[in-house]
Amino acid sequence: xxxxxxxxxxxxxxxxxxxxxxxxxxxxxxxxxxxxxxxxxxxxxxxxxxxxxxxxxxxxxxxxxxxxxxxxxxxxxxxxxxxxxxxxxxxxxxxxxxxxxxxxxxxxxxxxxxxxxxxxxxxxxxxxxxxxxxxxxxxxxxxxxxxxxxxxxxxxxxxxxxxxxxxxxxxxxxxxxxxxxxxxxxxxxxxxxxxxxxxxxxxxxxxxxxxxxxxxxxxxxxxxxxxxxxxxxxxxxxxxxxxxxxxxxxxxxxxxxxxxxxxxxxxxxxxxxxxxxxxxxxxxxxxxxxxxxxxxxxxxxxxxxxxxxxxxxxxxxxxxxxxxxxxxxxxxxxxxxxxxxxxxxxxxxxxxxx
Length: 354
Ligand SMILES: [Zn+2]
Description:
- The chain is α/β, with parallel strands linked by helices.
- The protein has helices at 15-24, 41-47, 87-107, 118-127, 149-154, 190-202, 213-222, 246-254, 265-268, 281-294, 320-329, 334-352; strands at residues 8-13, 49-56, 112-114, 130-137, 157-161, 205-207, 228-232, 258-261, 299-301.
- It has a single domain (3-352), classed as TIM Barrel (Alpha-Beta Barrel).
């Protein structure tokens, strides 16, 4: 099959925040092709994007006026620790971004849909409707008594990252550092263990991206769902604190879970530099490594579009066929490519959602 015919389901983007910040600056529209950012509907169509996890990330209050991408690690230097967020501000900001997502769905004339279960996702794929999964990158908006978790579930929340790279009531995000271990501090709080169980109960996917290593092992020990990292890469190839050790990769594979490859060049390059002049081969190296280690059923894509620095040879979402072409040249056959681009995410979501 030609590379441009593959349909891609993607584990992570920061498009909602990017659009929200652009709106304030006079912006870009999701429906009009732009040279800014990485995802809009015309480019998503061209790149074969079938859907993905659309993250809500709440930036620190003092950075809210800037458009600094959330995964911007200033690699290879050590970024200063990011302080905790005010939960009330996080909740308001999160509700605003969910409303933005709802507005996109409303204006899309049936071309975009927020999906809440695996049947809806299947219908979107069958009808070529772009499927959006509502994901929180950090649980600050959810009060530790968990009273608002159901409110957000009702608004469509189906995937929750407990932390971004900062501490909160549930756990400790791993600060950006290179080279550095992901083992950077204590594990989950009591509230962290409780929210994992409540997510299991509701059928919300728990995302372990950005969690420090002890937190990762705490979630892996208590969750009854597959272990998932929506956007990550191999620490063995690029020793960034955000990347996954071999043992973490093994745990993902053994649980029936999946890791989505983060496209951020600073997490892929062996030198940790955030240099767009990075060949696609570096992405293939991480996929090869993870597939060799844990198997083709447990590796997928998690681009971090609109939140990270892409290889200039990929560019944006419209460049996905270039990555697939490179994978074909590296020897991935049709069965393997379907798993990498779409089927592994569908399996894990089917196993996790109620
Ligand atoms: Zn991220």
